[in-house]
Predict the structure.
Amino acid sequence: MAMYVYKDAARTEKLLAKNAQKQDKGNRYYCPNYSCDAHMHICNIEGVSASYFSASRFYGHIEKCPYEASNGFNPNKYNEGNFEFDNALLALTMPSNPQTKKEIPAEHGSGTATPKPPRTIRQIYAMCKAYDYSDTYNGVTIGKMLLDNRSVHMYPKGVFDWRIIEGKCKSGRFYDASKLEISLTSSTDGKEYTFILRFDSEELFKEIKNDIFSNREYLVVVAGQWRAAGSFNAFCTTFSSKKQLAIIK
């Protein structure tokens, strides 16, 4: 699913789902993934639910396309109005506490549970990828939440405060065990930044280092509060919970 598509095969003219009209229903559009030739169509244009684009069952997405339904973001499953980006990322930095399962009887006649806002890093990342970088989610511009190939031009002076970064493993030695640091680079084709994850816990450092090493060919997505690291085009964040990281295969 996607919240935007292109009107032409060359991907020069975008169409946002929120701007689609009734007459657009039935038209064929192009997947935001340049490598995917899926036939995209507008869905839910008539109802009160949020509209989105989905691929034709006969001309679907290529394997592992981020806009394929099982990987994509369905806006109707989440509560956009209750989403607070900074608070959501702050929650990801909090170590998980073991929770005891409790049996709570369902209330008689209760309806469907109210949707919750995106909470996990995978949910927030999928939401950001589904929308165009210039679009907004609960009033916040997508490009100000996620740094990727589309939004890197919005960061000419660096990456500061709460952000999700899309990175990749640095070539060669990507960690410093003496400093408990892991270094990633931006996955963009333009400006290159170095992102340093600084750990207080040696156990967590080793766990994350091993996860990245075993998947070093894949994208690494990290949520954090970023600040200057003291060297050119390098930024760092404190890494305190494995909830801050996702590896995108």
